């Protein structure tokens, strides 16, 4: 939108018309769809209404000058977050989770349907979740529904109420109130979702293979790794592909850790199966070979695998086989991680990294010669597409005015005491990272960590 197309005010001295925005951001490095360049951005009523070349002279009630060592980014979109409120708010809650998100440049999250009580498997539970989030959301919050045995009748109603799709497990979820589906039950629900063009997102590990594998016990990480073999992931992903092909549903593979599955995913996409795939910072930055015995902060499911596997996941991202990088922020209390005993068989499986995702991925991407633009495609643009959030993730006129001001060259050392996550435990403790989020902006307003003004969002029709 050019200046002369926007409503303005009369300048008394010159008699010319100029535009007064609610907020103007300008700097030498602004990431738009055309790449990083010097730009000025005008915001009105929470929306981006103008993007001009630097020097255009946009005027606003507020002006933010983006420093030379900073980049203005679109706010990140994280579609895989376990907030756990209500029911397990001592693990995490909307206030702590959304503050952590904002501190990490994430301006929109989509909350998973389990680990809260009740799980989001019917309309009543969704309304309870929304009520809990409405008071304490420092960023925008949306919700996934759950697909569990017996709730097929609830799926359409949840869809019409605005959930972004439905999550299922093909093995025990870790909590009894969110039971898993058999492969045939998943197919039945996929057919139902296809009838109203919804999305099935799947925790893809085969229950039978894991039941027959070596059981994790004690402090040895190698034993835990053997208890969640790649074959379990590969088999389950093959089943997801087969049933998605059969039903025509849109399907999404959650938290890919096994690089063995990349070729079958590539083939399925080439054949026209409606398939997308995500991976997570812990699979891209951590290595099985470096995990100390007893270090249960590293436990997650599927597990962190070896160096060669990590390299192949990065290659899969670069080749477009993997679409998204999201946190799978899955926190718990410190005692549930069994830190005192370090028993991988007992500890809760999950990594809390919502605040750290961007610096984690940028630090590793930088080593690999990858651009910040590419990182934002994986961490904002593509997750936004997955959820159908057409008004986010890009700095252009008509989009929501959600931003992160990021200093890519500044470094810091992770200290769990300085994170907003509710429980101070992280596999990244003491790790030196590049990239600091200096400010997050939601709908044109700064996140001040005092006043929550995130919105509850729904699936766009």
TrEMBL record:
So which domain of life are we looking at? Bacteria
Q: Name one GO biological process term.
A: allantoin catabolic process
Q: How does it assemble?
A: Homotetramer.
Q: Which GO terms describe its molecular function?
A: allantoinase activity; cobalt ion binding; zinc ion binding
Q: What is its EC number?
A: 3.5.2.5
Associated pathway: Nitrogen metabolism; (S)-allantoin degradation; allantoate from (S)-allantoin: step 1/1
**The name this protein goes by in its record:** allantoinase
Family recorded in the similarity comment: Belongs to the metallo-dependent hydrolases superfamily. Allantoinase family.
Q: Which gene encodes it?
A: allB
What UniProt keywords are attached to this protein's entry?
A: Hydrolase, Metal-binding, Purine metabolism, Zinc
Question: Which cofactors?
Answer: Zn(2+)
Sequence ranges assigned to domain Amidohydrolase-related in this UniProt record: 71-439
Task: Please tell me one Gene Ontology term that the record gives under cellular component.
Answer: cytoplasm
């Amino acid at each position: 939108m050019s200046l002369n197309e926007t409503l303005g005010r009369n300048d008394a001295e010159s008699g010319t018309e100029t535009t007064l925005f609610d907020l103007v951001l300008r700097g030498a490095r602004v990431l738009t769809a055309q790449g990083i360049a010097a730009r000025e951005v005008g915001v009105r009523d929470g929306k981006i209404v103008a993007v001009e070349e630097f020097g255009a002279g946009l005027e606003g009630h507020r002006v933010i000058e983006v420093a030379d060592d900073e980049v203005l980014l679109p706010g990140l979109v994280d579609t895989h977050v376990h907030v756990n409120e209500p029911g397990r708010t001592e693990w995490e809650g909307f206030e702590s989770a959304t503050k952590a998100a904002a501190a990490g440049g994430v301006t929109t999250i989509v909350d998973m349907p389990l680990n809260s009580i009740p799980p989001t498997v019917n309309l009543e539970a969704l309304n309870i979740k929304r009520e809990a989030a409405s008071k304490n959301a420092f960023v925008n919050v949306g919700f996934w529904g759950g697909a569990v045995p017996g709730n097929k009748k609830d799926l359409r109603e949840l869809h019409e109420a605005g959930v972004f799709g439905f999550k299922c497990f093909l093995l025990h979820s870790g909590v009894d109130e969110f039971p898993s589906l058999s492969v045939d039950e998943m197919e039945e629900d996929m057919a139902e979702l296809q009838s109203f063009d919804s999305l099935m997102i799947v925790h893809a590990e085969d229950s039978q293979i894991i039941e027959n594998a070596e059981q994790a016990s004690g402090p040895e990480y190698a034993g835990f790794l053997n208890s969640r073999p790649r074959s379990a992931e590969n088999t389950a992903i093959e089943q997801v592909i087969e049933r998605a092909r059969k039903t025509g549903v849109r399907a999404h593979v959650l938290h890919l850790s096994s690089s063995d599955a990349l070729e079958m995913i590539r083939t399925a996409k080439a054949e026209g199966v409606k398939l997308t795939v995500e991976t997570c910072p812990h699979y891209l930055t951590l290595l099985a070979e470096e995990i100390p015995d007893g270090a249960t902060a590293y436990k997650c499911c599927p597990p962190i695998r070896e160096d060669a596997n990590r390299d192949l996941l990065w290659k899969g991202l670069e080749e477009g086989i993997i679409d998204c990088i999201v946190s799978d922020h899955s926190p718990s209390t410190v005692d549930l991680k069994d830190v005192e005993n370090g028993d991988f068989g007992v500890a809760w499986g999950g990594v809390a990294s919502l605040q750290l995702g961007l610096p984690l991925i940028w630090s590793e991407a930088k080593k690999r010669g990858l651009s910040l633009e590419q990182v934002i495609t994986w961490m904002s643009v593509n997750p936004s597409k997955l959820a159908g959030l057409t008004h986010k993730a890009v700095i252009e006129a008509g989009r929501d005015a959600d931003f992160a001001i990021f200093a890519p060259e500044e470094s810091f050392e992770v200290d769990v005491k300085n994170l907003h996550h509710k429980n101070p435990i992280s596999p990244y403790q003491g790790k030196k990272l590049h990239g600091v989020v200096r400010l997050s902006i939601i709908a044109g307003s700064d996140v001040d960590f005092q006043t929550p003004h995130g919105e509850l969002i729904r699936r766009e029709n």
